[in-house]
Design goal:
Chain A is of the alpha/beta class. In chain A, about 40% of the residues lie in helices and about 15% in strands. In chain A, helix 4 links the parallel strand 3 and strand 4. The chains are: A alpha/beta (about 375), B alpha/beta (about 750), C alpha+beta (about 100).
Chain lengths: ~375, ~750, ~100
């Protein structure tokens, strides 16, 4: 069975066309997941949406929101002769400290890994080196990292530079700040496998904000939008789970337990946005020796030059602008020479737009945003 | 100077241009009038009795009278700040040149948020502040005109103009502090400004003492410079009282000593410690010259606003003048030039000590003449039970009743003036003060909040992890003792609120609250040492002098601006709407009594910041309370629906009767319609906690603040939860709140 | 980091690190996947894998249900077209 069947896509698009009230003010939906943006742009879904229905990306890219000073901490570790293992996207992230790619080019030992297990294995095979996993990602990645930390026989020379972020506080911040004018959320599908769809319950129940958890095939997104449009038409605010085939209501209990056991929740800096309380993780006190910041005595402070001058990532990440609105987009800032973080990661909104750019996308951008 | 693309509000609004916003605000927070007199004497037909619904011959009613008086008070206050700002700016232009860059360093890019918001310009150089002050001046003239005989006839329009006077006040504050911070290179947004000695006990009375008192620190700065340049600092003690002291300390750190604030004037002068008194403008006792001269001190008036009846010796050579004055018994002059006044003060001080204490000490014998006539009681502005206290000393040798009033006493000396038998009542009250010689430390003002701090803390403020920002400002005429604001500030900082302060209140924060003990081991009792001066949870920041209070307002504007990503210029209503609905900031003017205090509070109110006064605040003629009969609503900017709920903030300008009630009110006044679920939980924890702790019972409106089950603080019992969510309670969705229909998302 | 890929569990064993591991097939390509977070997984199940960890089991019945909903929308569209052809019948908005 396929969720990419063009006929099925047509079905949903047709239903959306019927469902969206004509001549009304339209609806604006926000998602907070780079992979959702990927699906939307890759399949040109925006061009299929009826006039007046908009979907915009919020802060859904953990690489993009990783603050410059934390990358700086990783680079500092590399300079001290530590082997730093991290996920591919982090390599080229530009900051005022340079990038990990530059540190590598200067002779530093930076390794790209697919799984946190790879980092543990690296430490096992290189007992004479200090190995640090620069752990970036939302809850979906935090759970595997927690498992590694909790596994038996973890070598002594292994620790974590944690830069995980939690999604719900950022969504609440968006609602608290206001002026974003979202009518509903598409909740991140894979974060929800860990947190459960229940993690989003407070949005419909306290904020009267409709939420639909969606999968990553084009039909998933379109169906989620249809469900949202129907709710909005009826003046309802519910939590619906379009991705029920994968997302359980209560989440993945062993994964949540592992995160709870190994990490504590802290305030965390989101690049371009600011310091959001209760939105980050760090190893618990008992595991201080696994916390690279404690182990190596490194703590950089955040500062003003979080984003380079002229960069509009803060607007893109908060869903206040589409990438083409940035004067540097496609000119000074491209995937081959990224200026701001959103152009670096596979999950970055600007990267995704640039990769799949077409006239239709530009037209959407011209008509949308703000 | 950079001009910005505009928002929808008129730039440089006239006195009626923000009327629709004012009426929107005043419709929800209606003026409640507290007339202090029932007769009007504003024209030569009066006094006309207006009680019982009478109308005066000009059509005046009691309510209109109160509204008009509030306007004229606010105008007076704003004029005081505007004149002071002009003095500062013009003096700095003369000293440093009009092209001086208003640079506050890389951490503060939004240098003048209030000016940017109202005038639509970003001042880049000193000269750019003059058009701002010109605009302020013209507005104040018009506002005063509106209060003339047969002028504004509608109470709400009078209130609207009072709010406009408030806006002018804030512009003046910001202009003044921006100018002096840039010119004198005061510290900007740093946490570790020097701790400056504070209190009478810190002054080395063995040396000649120069006291600078007032607001304009030009002379004080000059004296400090001269002392340093001529290596005379070890020989002369330079001290300050009031705002000028704050600004001198910001410029020279611990080289200056701060004696205290407006309340300490009389007692310090009578102590005979100050040999040369340099006075400029505003908040100076009208009998200070007299009191100073009778102790033998020299008195130099330096502001044309306050010539004090003294001969003008501006043109005289300072050395020669000093020679001449030193020989005189009553040595008072008026010198308008700050540099010359500084030279004169220094020259006089170098001639040695000359002042003698007067009426400072008192013992049982001094009470002998008391006949228990109650004249002192009647003259006391706080109506302290002085007569019984003095009588009990005279007849039974008891000091305890005097000890009971000593802390609350404002040291104003009215009792002395009232006593026909020359009993030194104030000295007796002072003598009962068992506290050790007054010495403390206050952190030098740190000026504005940096853009970085705003960004860093903004989300926590919006999410409610920081339950509120509370600014303790204005005069020190507290109804309940000198330690009141320190007590409140500590309680709030302990709970994670951000505490800001400036001016007179900032000095009082340095005194440990009674009953707080000496502090635990390793925890300093002085709030300035205990809480870091960072704009973050549990931080306590002295912004500086009264004009630095503009930075508290500026911080609120900056939070709005940084989140809204919207231009400030021409967006007054939009920004005020945002602050009103989303930023939990409260101004506490616990001892506020001067017209300046009213003006600043009106300015804050118009921008959506509620203000809490002590009980005497009603004497500003009106408070602004949530309209009880109004079905309270906000618009949900998402859907355009009107959503009901509990008024938040609960009022805009109000009073509390006691410090305990005040703290509970403060916590409540930090609640906002957009509080996230977590934020509401945190704020309610504090509101309920403070109410239980201080008033002995939980607040009775608690259930009204619960919008959904997610608002009930997690730690509360099932029984409590059931009680709150039971009865007639029904959930209300959390809005994306606005009062402005034009901000509702259009189709 | 949200990229999760579905695969079929071919076998389950305990890994050297003490964690339950599985051989998972992604359209023929086999990889070792940590199964620690799916204690009840069985051979033949389809799982979603992220950074080498199985984070959820794909429920075939739920998948069917979603598929059916999507198909139904198509049926409804056809129905609507037919209904519109009949002039004096009113068309309700889709459920």
């Amino acid at each position: 069975m396929s969720f990419r069947d063009p006929l099925l896509v047509q079905n949903v698009v047709g239903a959306l066309g019927t469902a969206l009230p004509r001549g009304g003010r339209g609806y604006k939906i926000m998602h907070v997941c780079g992979s959702h943006e990927h699906t939307i742009s890759r399949w040109g879904l925006r061009s299929l949406l009826p006039q007046g229905l908009e979907v915009i990306a919020g802060p859904g890219c953990p690489v993009c929101v990783c603050p410059a000073h934390e990358v700086g901490e990783a680079i500092e570790l590399v300079r001290r002769g530590v082997t730093v293992a991290t996920f591919g996207d982090m390599l080229n992230l530009p900051t005022r400290f340079g990038s990990l790619a530059q540190a590598k080019a200067e002779g530093g030992d930076v390794r790209l890994i697919y799984s946190p297990m790879d980092a543990a294995r690296l430490a096992q095979r290189n007992p004479d080196r200090e190995v640090v996993l620069f752990a970036v990602g939302f809850e979906t990645t935090a759970a595997p990292v927690a498992a590694v930390l909790g596994a038996g026989e973890l070598p002594d020379n292994f620790s974590l530079l944690v830069s995980h972020r939690l999604t719900p506080p950022a969504m609440e911040l968006l609602l608290g700040i206001g002026d974003i004018h979202i009518d509903g959320f598409i909740a991140p599908g894979h974060v929800s496998t860990i947190t459960g769809s229940d993690a989003w319950r407070r949005f419909p129940e306290a904020y009267a904000m409709p939420v639909v958890v969606a999968g990553f095939e084009p039909e998933d997104i379109l169906l989620a939008m249809l469900l949202l449009v129907r709710q909005l038409n009826r003046g309802e605010a519910k939590l619906e789970n379009e991705y029920a085939r994968v997302v359980p209501d209560a989440g993945n209990r062993p994964a949540l337990a592992a995160i709870e056991e190994v990490f504590e929740v802290t305030p965390a800096w989101w690049r371009g946005i600011g310091r959001i309380p209760r939105s980050g993780l760090r190893p618990r006190r008992e595991l201080a020796h696994r916390d690279a910041r404690e182990r190596f005595g490194i703590r950089f402070e955040a500062d003003l030059s979080d984003l380079p001058p002229g960069c509009s990532c803060h607007l893109v990440m908060l869903g206040k602008a589409y990438p083409p609105a940035c004067p540097l987009y496609g000119k000074k800032c491209t995937p081959s020479s990224p200026y701001g973080p959103c152009m670096v990661s596979q999950e970055g909104t600007c990267f995704i737009w640039f990769t799949y750019e077409s006239d239709e996308l530009s037209a959407t951008a011209a008509g949308g945003a703000k | 100077m950079h001009a910005e693309p505009r928002g929808p509000t008129t730039l440089r609004p006239g006195i009626a241009d923000l009327r629709s916003w004012d009426h929107l605000l005043l419709g929800r927070y209606r003026p409640v009038y507290h007339p202090v007199t029932t007769s009007c004497a504003w024209c030569a037909l009066g006094p006309c009795e207006l009680s019982r619904g009478r109308r005066g011959p000009c059509g005046q009613t009691l309510m209109l009278l109160a509204a008009r008086e509030a306007l004229m008070l606010a105008v007076n206050g704003a004029c005081a700040h505007a004149a002071h700002a002009r003095d500062v700016v013009e003096h700095l232009i003369k000293t440093f040149g009009e092209g001086l860059l208003l640079d506050l360093g890389p951490w503060v890019q939004i240098r003048a948020p209030i000016i940017q918001l109202v005038v639509g310009r970003r001042p880049g150089r000193l000269q750019d502040l003059l058009p701002v002050l010109d605009y302020v001046d013209t507005q104040l003239v018009r506002l005063a005109a509106a209060g003339h005989f047969g002028g504004e006839s509608d109470a709400l329009d009078l209130e609207s103009k009072t709010l406009h006077a408030g806006t002018m006040d804030l512009l003046a504050l910001e202009a003044a502090d921006l100018a002096q911070t840039a010119a004198y290179q005061f510290p900007v947004a740093v946490a570790d400004t020097p701790l400056v000695p504070l209190g009478l006990g810190e002054v080395d009375a063995s040396k000649p003492v120069i006291l600078c008192i007032g607001h304009h620190s030009a002379v004080g700065h000059r004296i400090a410079e001269l002392l340093e340049a001529r290596a005379l600092s070890p020989q002369v003690e330079l001290v300050g009282l009031c705002c000028t002291a704050h600004d001198m300390a910001r410029g020279h750190g611990a080289a200056v000593k701060i004696v205290g604030n407006q309340r300490d004037q009389l007692s310090f002068i009578r102590a005979g410690v100050a040999d040369v008194v340099v006075a400029d403008q505003q908040c100076i006792r009208l009998d200070l010259r007299e009191e100073a001269l009778t102790t033998g001190a020299c008195f130099i008036a330096t502001s044309e606003e306050a010539c004090a009846g003294l001969p003008d010796e501006t043109a005289a050579d300072p050395e020669a003048l000093a020679c001449d004055l030193a020989a005189r018994a009553l040595a008072g002059v008026f010198v308008a030039d700050p540099d010359r006044a500084a030279e004169l003060a220094l020259a006089l001080a170098l001639r040695g000590k000359r002042a003698r204490p007067r009426q400072v000490t008192a013992d049982e014998d001094d009470a002998i003449n008391c006949t228990r006539c109650f004249a002192c009681d009647q003259s006391c502005p706080l109506q302290l039970p002085l007569t019984e206290a003095v009588w009990s000393l005279a007849s039974e040798g008891r000091w305890d009743l005097l000890g009971g009033v000593t802390d609350r006493c404002l040291r104003c000396g009215s009792c002395d003036a009232a006593c026909r038998l020359e009993v030194p009542v104030m000295a007796l009250v002072q003598a009962a003060d068992r506290r050790p010689a007054q010495r403390s430390l206050v952190r030098a003002g740190r000026g504005p909040i940096s853009d970085f701090e705003i960004k860093s803390t903004g989300p926590a403020i919006v999410l409610g992890d920081i339950p509120g920002i509370v600014a303790f400002l204005a005069c020190p005429d507290y109804p309940d003792g000198r330690g009141a604001v320190a007590w409140m500030a500590r309680a709030l900082a302990e709970r994670g609120y951000i505490v800001l302060t400036a001016g007179c209140a900032a000095m009082d924060l340095a005194w440990c609250a009674e009953g707080s003990g000496a502090g635990e081991e390793d925890t300093p009792a002085n709030p300035y040492q205990r809480y870091p001066a960072v704009f973050d949870q549990g931080g306590l920041l002295n912004l500086g002098s009264c004009v630095s209070a503009s930075h508290a307002i500026g911080a609120a504007i900056k939070v709005a601006s940084i989140f809204l990503h919207r231009r400030l210029a021409g967006n007054f209503a939009g920004i005020a709407d945002y602050i009103l609905n989303r930023i939990g900031m409260v101004g506490v003017l616990w001892g506020g009594v001067t017209p300046k205090a009213l003006a600043a509070s009106a300015g804050a109110n118009r921008l959506g910041i509620p203000v809490l006064f002590g009980p005497q605040g009603e004497r500003f003629r009106r408070t602004l309370e949530a309209a009880p009969d109004l079905a309270w609503w906000v618009l949900d900017a998402r859907t355009g629906r009107q959503l009901g709920g509990t008024p938040a903030p609960a009022s805009l300008c109000t009073t509390a009767a006691s410090r305990e009630e005040a703290l509970v009110q403060i916590a409540r006044l930090c609640l906002r319609p957009n509080d996230t679920t977590m934020g509401r939980q945190v704020k309610l924890e504090h509101y309920a906690g403070l109410s239980r702790e201080l008033l002995g019972h939980p607040p009775d409106d608690l259930a009204r603040w619960i919008r959904s089950a997610y608002d009930v603080p997690e730690g509360w019992s099932e029984a409590e939860r059931a009680r709150l969510l039971g009865g007639g309670w029904a959930p209300v969705p959390i809005p994306d709140p606005t009062l402005l229909a034009e901000l509702v998302r259009a189709g | 980091m949200c990229l999760g890929v579905p695969g079929e569990v071919l076998s389950i064993e305990t890994g050297a690190n003490g964690l339950p591991m599985g051989k998972v097939s992604f359209g023929g390509m086999r990889k070792d996947v940590v199964l620690a977070y799916l204690p009840e997984v069985e051979v033949g199940d389809y799982v979603l894998v992220h950074v080498g960890f199985a984070i959820s089991r794909i429920d075939p019945e739920e998948a069917e249900r979603t598929m059916a909903l999507l198909q139904e929308l198509g049926d409804l569209a056809l129905l609507e077209r037919d209904l519109k052809a009949v002039q004096h019948l009113e068309v309700d908005d889709a459920r």
